[in-house]
Every structure is written in C-alpha cells, then in structure tokens.
Write a structure and sequence with these properties.
alpha/beta; 7-stranded mixed beta sheet; 30 helices; binds iron/sulfur cluster
C-alpha cells in the first residue's frame, strides 16, 4: 500500500473495471501514486471493493504509457506534434470519405470510455461523417441483452435496481460467475441469503465459484438456457401461475410464445431431456420459481455470448412478464453488465444499431436527432456491428478505422483474421494509454495518447442505471489528452467546429442530457433532462444519480410494474424464440467445445490489471480447464501443458484438471495476449458466428480438440525490467513486487541460459549449474539487491517460485538469504505461503492450509486468523473448498475456475 500524506484529500471517483460501478476514494500520495478505498457513500458498493478495485493503486504508474502522438513514417512510429497528428488524421479521413464515401470509415469504441467521450465519437460519425459504422467492444459483452430488451420492452431498459437483489427471496443466476465477475454485487446476494434467507439457483454449464453458495446448481448443456426457460413458461401456464391481468393489460404475443415454448420443452421431462438436467433438478427449479413471488433473475455473458443470445434473454423475460414479476421490489429480470460504462455507451448510441439517447433508426428518431445536432448528413440506417465491421475491413470495404480504448486484435473472435484485416487499412488510428499492445502492433499508422483512469473526468453508468462521476485525481501525463478533446479537434479540422466546440466534459454532459429530454414527453425511457442545466460546479460535485431523471418528475427506481412499455402501443412483447441449436457441430476432429471467459483478478487484456503484483499472484499463467474423464481420454495431465486447437487457431496452455468443468467442455480465460504470453491469445480460437439480432459472437462453444504438450524443463525469471526471452520458449509474464516475472517452459538445451543471462544482467552473478541433473540457477545482484534471477529445472522441480519471489521483493538480502537463494528453499523469515488465494491481503494457499490444519473450520475462522476473505469476499468460495478438501482428507488442489 502507498503511504499517504493525511493532509491530502480523497477524490470521489468510480472503479474502471466491471459494470457494478463501485464508488472509489482515491487519495494521491503526491508522487504519482494513490491510496484506494471503497466509497462508503456510493450506493453500488457502500464502501466495499473487490480484489481488482482494491489493487487500483498498483496500476496507475507511467511505465509503458503512451505520452506523445506518433505517426508511422517509413515503417517506424515517430513522435510528432499534436497539431500534425490531428491534421494528418483529418486530412486522411477527408480524402477517404471524398473518394469512397462515408461508409468506408469506422470507429471501434470501448465500454471503458466515459459517456462524454462516447457521445462525441458517436455524434461525429453518425451526425457529421454520415455513417453508423460506430461499434464497440460492448458488442462482445452484452449486445444480446440490449436486443432482448428492445424486442420485449420497446427500449433498452434494465427494469430493476440493486435494491432488488437485497429484497429478493429467490436469486436465479444464469450464465453468470458473479462471485468472480461482479464480486461486490455477489456479496450483496450473500448478505441477503444470510440476513433474509434468500435462496439461490445457479444455472451454468460450469460449476463456478458462484455455485458454491447456491441451494441448487443446474449444470445444463451449453446453449439450452432457452429450453429451460421455455419449460418454465409452460410449467407456470399449466399450473395456473400466470399473472393473467398483467398479460392482458400490458403485453401482446403471449399465446404464440407459449405455443413455441411447448414445442421446445413442453413438460418437465422434455425440459430435462433438452437441457441434460435430471427431472428432479428441473422440477425443483420450477417449484422454487413458481412458489416465490420475489424472484430476481440475473444473467450475464453465459447468456449473451451466443448465436441465440437474444432468444435466451427473451426466454427469461417471457417468464418474468408472464408472472408480472418485473419492476417490483425484489422481483425483476436483471442484466449484469460486464464493463464499467457499457450502459453509458448504450445511452449515447455507441452501438451501430442505435442512433443516440436510446433512439433508433426510425424516420422520426433520425429527424429528431438531426434537428437537435443540426447534423448536415445524419446516418439513416444501422451500421456494421463489430464482427461484420472487421469482415468489411478484411474485404477492403472499410479503409479507415479509429480504435479507441480497446484491443480488438486480442478480444474479437477469430482474432488472427481480425488482426490481419487491420494490416490492410489505409488509415489505422488508435487512441491508447499504452505504447504497445497487440492492436498497436497490428500496424497502426497514427497513435494518439489518451488519458487513463485517475486522469480523466466525466461520467459512467452502471448496471442499475446509476450515473457516477469518474474524477481526475492525477495530472495528465506527457501530452495525453481526453478522448473527447481529440475527437473534437478532428471534427473541427473536418469542418464541423461549431458543433464540437466543447470546453469541458460538463459541456458535453449537458448536451447529452438535453438530447435525452428533447421531444421526449415520456415516450423514451432514457431521460436525464433534470441534469441539463447543471453548472460546471454542480457537475463536479454531482452525486451518483439513477436514470430516469426527468425534469420536474419524482425519482423512479424501477420500470414496468404497471406496464407502460416503450413500443407504440405501450405494451411489452412476448417473443417466440427459435428452437435452441448451437451454430456449430462437434466432430471426430473437434470433439470438445471451448468456453471462454474471465478470471477473478484480471480484466480484459490486462493492460491495467496486469500491472498489479497482487492481481498477478492468483492465476499467473494462461490455462485450459478440462474434466478428469476428458483429461484421461486425451492424455492430458494436471499441471502439465496442452495444445487446444479449433478451426480458427491454436494455443498452448497450462492444463488444469477439474471436476468443476463439464465433460465435453474446455474453459480458457480471455486475458492473455501476445504482449504478455507466448501462446495464450484465445480470441484467435473463437468462432465468429453471431446472433442474428444482436450481432454478438458465440464465444462459449467453439468446437475444439486438445492434445498433451510436453516440456522437459520449467522455470522462471524475475527481473527489474522487461526482458526478451530466448526464442521458442512457452512463457507468460506477470507483475511482481519490484519487477516482472516470466514463468516459462522449454525443451532446448540448458547450456543456452548462462550466455543469455549474462547478456541481460549485470556482472555480480551467482550461479548453480547441474546440467547433468537438468538444473541451472543463477542470480545477478546490484549491491545486496537481486537484479535478475533465473531458475530452470526438470518439470517437477523448477524451484519454489513463491520463496524466490519473496526474496526478489526484498530491498536487500542478508548474507544467509543470498547464500540460500539458489537453493530455492525457504530461508529464515522467508516462508513460502503458496499461490495467492486472497488477493486483497496476499494470503497464500499454504498459509490457509496451515490454519485449517490448526483448527480453522470456517471461512470466518480463517478470516479471523489471516484476514483472508474479510475484504471483498471473492476468495470465500475457495476458502470453503479448501476446508471441505481438508475435511475429506483430500490434498488441496489448484483451483482455476472463472467465468
Ligand atoms: Fe470494480 Fe470490483 Fe466494484 Fe467491479 S466489483 S466495480 S471490479 S471494485
């Protein structure tokens, strides 16, 4: 933790990671760092932060930051003045638009952007360039929820709020590993269970950490959520449990939807058959749902990331509409948003199929927005969604792309093809915080330095429609600028200066608020007209506010308890979903399905979270999880390596054998890229099939095969600076205290290492060589401090990485420690605590197992002894499992489960 001058004041801001939207207090230490704590007054978290939020202070350094504009000149990126970079971008855009038309240019944005930045990008492209080719990485995250909401409600409205989670009697989580991906909201669920006795059902092909606390876990076959909720709709209808008045007064299409549900899953038995669940489990779920008035169904990427994701969403919404359990305290469907400002992006129209302020491409909406913006050439139809957009780039139809704050070369499906497509662009602009990532390395022509979290100022909206301020508490480094400023400067150079004459984020927010209220009259859900006249000071001081915030109207926490939907007839639509079917088949060559998702302590492609030693300690290497029966069948051994191959690409990953994985399924996390690992970029493995309504890719069921991959040697390097490892290694990089760790595996002769080490380190070198035994260990020193340390040995005995890491973190080593270092064993005062389980307090598995052996019998016992699990609580399921394993006298196993 950074020590902080107590006279410095904390700044109230918002976490930049997930859609929970936790309030953060950031207190700068005056030398570039800051102390971070949860904001006790923020309604999303009331002071609590998860491991990622708690570690934000470790991610705000300037190492690897992009600090100046750069233009590629004769193949090399060179520093240029802002005016030259902006002139160049505007000149090239103008030329391409004049030659090929507005649809030859595109923006690819990010759910990490602030609403004000998003607003300006969308206005420039849709209102002034005249194309709707503006899409965002939110397309990969929750576009199916948007499409499902719009089909059912006539608008992209989240009907409930977080208080519903506190007040529900039944919490149904579908395709959501909230324990790891929305940890603070998950803690609210656990608090409800504890205080009020709420029950929890978890529906997921994987038995994730979220399932640990569930009364009922339904490990259904992938892609069958629609069948489960169709069966539920039939069950409710057949047992007289529908809210007939609500259906009659506020909805249409019920009969068709019920008829289709009967075709899909007309009974408990048919539902069990379709989903692969037991009839008893299906019946239990149906009973819990039908007997509980206060039900909140929460869903996330497991539902959204599907070629039938929109139908899945609508199958869930159908059940809530049919029972009138919507927009009532403790009773609502609830889409858990992945990114910090995916909701803000939806508000401004950051998706290619929305125009602005929750308006679409209907003639009245187009006309209204055109008049409001005084737009000279407003887009009149939807643009290309993310996957289509990159396909159009590959075909050469889109010739100019501006990427802002995201890393599509890693995160898009079929990512190798997307990366190659970017290399064909005539103009490729990237606004970024970092000097290098996989997208930048895909041949960027213009690199523009943007402000990062802690430096920028504006608003974000969380999953419950709550708008919060992100405030700057650090000065802008180098020549970095806000995204809205960069976009406005280009707009000005394109000849649209009068419409982009913003002086501050507050200016933009006021305009955004005014558009939301413009000719609204209660006909559109998104209305923050009450905030249109905020002064600059009031914007600075703005407390979290939930929308709608209509001028002269009472606050409204929920929608639709009394109908009043946003279709022209003000009624909701039941949707008859298609018969569930995955877009791809397995076959003899690809007998498994690859699921992808997040892990607890990393975020997206790690450009921020990867800077934190605490976060890097939990799961430092890219891995694939496989069921023991499949591991047996395919010869894969726990803690060894495996090659995962799909029709799109291949990766070599650490193998984790776990019964938490369903037979026939693999799971691999999405976070590793070519910037931080040799072979962990799983986006390159994912099929590019998309949902017909939302355009969201099916990222969780790509047909795959797995084969064991063997390395003779394993090892690690710890270094004060980033280094280049010898060719042909398998490696993954993680931040550690005082530098970087490279975990590697290798098949080459050991004799190459001494020369390599001498080339990257200083002269004071200690070595231990046993080439015959397959061991080489060495460390170089600057005074009493380790500069570089290399351990390589047989796969089963590469040395205790946790001990060496502790010694590397020390400012100086004693003579004894220095002597013992190359033994790789504990020295006095440096005891290996094993892999980190509790990231908040850095508590390792060995310490926890010791506490259990010493009599700790509950997570609370462990918390009392070691503090583990007492902050964000994300590791509590893991603590419980270690206790259970000890109880059944099974040795603790590595745990690597994620969303
Ligand atoms: Fe940030 Fe964690 Fe809160 Fe999400 S749950 S907003 S990652 S602190």
């Amino acid at each position: 933790m950074t020590s902080v001058d107590p006279t410095l004041r904390a700044t109230r801001t918002t976490c930049p990671y997930c859609g929970v939207g936790c309030g953060v207090l950031a207190t700068p230490d005056g030398s570039g760092g800051a102390a971070i704590s949860g904001d006790p007054e923020h309604p999303a978290n009331f002071g609590r932060l998860c491991s990622k939020g708690s570690a934000l202070g470790e991610t705000i350094g300037l190492e690897d930051r992009l600090l100046h504009p750069m233009i590629r000149c004769k193949g090399v990126l060179e520093r240029v003045a802002w005016s030259d970079a902006l002139d160049h971008v505007a000149h090239r855009l103008k030329h391409i638009i004049a030659r090929d038309g507005a649809h030859a240019v595109a923006f690819y944005l990010s759910g990490q952007m602030l609403t004000e930045d998003y607003y300006v990008a969308n206005k420039l492209m849709k209102g002034f360039v005249g194309s709707a080719n503006v899409d965002t990485n939110s397309r990969l995250c929750m576009a199916s929820s948007v499409a499902g909401h719009r089909r059912a409600f006539g608008a992209d409205t989240v009907p409930g709020c977080y208080e519903d989670i506190d007040e529900a009697d039944l919490l149904v989580l579908v395709g959501s590993n909230a324990a790891w991906c929305h940890p603070v909201t998950f803690q609210r669920m656990l608090a409800n269970k504890q205080k009020r006795g709420a029950r929890m059902v978890v529906i997921d092909p994987r038995r994730t950490n979220t399932a640990e606390d569930a009364e009922l876990f339904l490990g259904l076959k992938p892609g069958t959520d629609t069948a489960l909720f169709s069966g539920l709709l039939v069950h409710l209808a057949d047992n007289g449990l529908l809210d007939r008045d609500y259906i009659e007064q506020h909805t249409t299409g019920f009969d068709e939807a019920l008829m289709r549900a009967r075709q899909i899953a007309g009974s408990v038995a048919a539902t069990a058959l379709a989903t692969g669940l037991t009839e008893a489990d299906v019946a239990s779920f149906f009973k819990m749902f039908r007997e509980t008035e206060r039900v909140v169904t929460l869903y996330s990427q497991g539902v959204n990331q599907s070629a039938q994701g929109t139908d899945k969403v609508n199958a869930i919404l159908n059940c809530h509409l049919a029972t009138g359990r919507i927009g009532k305290p403790g009773a609502s469907p609830f889409s858990l948003t992945g990114q910090p400002n995916a909701m803000g992006g939806r508000e401004v129209g950051g998706l290619a199929n929305q125009l602005a302020a929750h308006m679409g491409f209907t003639p009245p909406d187009i006309d209204r927005v055109r008049r409001f913006w005084k737009a000279p050439r407003i887009a009149t139809h939807e643009g290309l969604k993310a996957v289509q957009m990159f396909e159009a780039i590959a075909r050469g139809e889109i010739k100019a792309l501006w990427v802002i704050g995201t890393n599509p070369a890693v995160s898009l499906p079929d990512a190798d093809v997307a990366r190659e497509a970017m290399k064909k662009l005539e103009l490729f602009v990237v606004s970024e915080n970092v000097r290098s990532n996989d997208t930048v390395e895909a041949g960027v022509h213009v690199l523009l330095p943007a402000l990062a979290w802690g430096e920028k100022s504006g608003t974000v909206t969380n999953s419950e429609r709550c708008i919060s301020r992100q405030r700057s508490f650090l000065p802008a480094p180098g020549e970095a600028r806000p995204d809205w400023w960069i976009l406005s400067e280009v707009a000005n150079r394109l000849g649209f200066g009068a419409a982009f004459d913003y002086k501050s984020a507050a200016d933009i927010f006021r305009e955004h608020a005014a558009l939301s209220a413009f000719e609204n009259n209660g006909n559109r859900d998104f209305d923050i007209g009450a905030l249109t006249s905020l002064s600059d000071d009031a914007f600075d001081a703005m407390a979290p506010v939930q929308w709608p915030s209509r001028e002269g109207a009472e606050p409204q926490a929920r929608f639709f308890a009394n109908g009043n939907f946003y279709a022209n007839d003000r009624k909701a639509r039941f949707v008859a979903p298609e018969i569930p079917a995955l877009r791809s088949e397995t076959n003899a060559g690809r007998p498994l399905r690859l699921n992808t998702g997040r892990i607890r302590d990393q975020w997206h492609t790690m450009t921020r979270s990867g800077l934190s030693p605490r976060l890097g300690a939990h799961l430092p290497e890219p891995f694939v999880e496989i069921h023991p029966d499949d591991a047996n069948k395919y010869g894969v051994v726990d803690d060894s390596f495996a090659r995962v191959t799909t029709d799109y690409g291949q990766c070599i990953l650490k193998a984790v054998v776990s019964e938490r994985q369903q037979r026939g399924m693999l799971f691999a996390p999405i976070h590793w890229s070519e910037a931080n690992a040799s072979s962990g970029r799983v986006g390159a493995l994912v099929a590019p099939f998309t949902d017909p309504y939302s355009g969201q890719p099916e990222s969780k069921v790509t047909p795959a095969s797995i084969t064991p991959y063997e390395y003779v040697f394993r090892g690690f390097v710890l270094s004060r600076k980033r280094i280049e490892l010898p060719q042909s290694l398998w490696w993954a990089r993680a931040a550690v205290t005082g530098g970087y760790a490279y975990l590697f595996a290798d098949n080459a002769d050991l004799t190459r290492w001494p020369n390599w080490l001498r080339a990257v380190s200083c002269d004071d070198l200690a070595e231990y060589r046993d080439f015959g035994g397959g061991v080489y260990r060495a460390a170089s020193f600057a005074g009493d401090r380790i500069e570089t340390c290399l351990f390589v040995g047989p796969a089963h005995d590469a040395g205790d990485w946790d001990v060496v890491k502790s010694l590397f973190a020390a400012v100086s080593l004693s003579d004894d420690q220095r002597r013992m270092l190359l033994s790789g064993r504990s020295t006095e005062g440096v005891v290996s605590t094993g892999p980190v389980v509790c990231a908040c307090f850095g508590v390792g598995r060995a310490s926890i197992c010791d506490a259990i052996a010493d009599g700790a019998r509950s997570a609370a016992d462990i918390g009392a002894r070691l503090k583990a699990g007492t902050n964000c609580g994300s590791c509590i399921p893991e603590l419980k499992r270690l206790i259970a394993q000890a109880d059944t006298a099974i040795a603790p196993q590595p745990v690597a489960v994620a969303n």
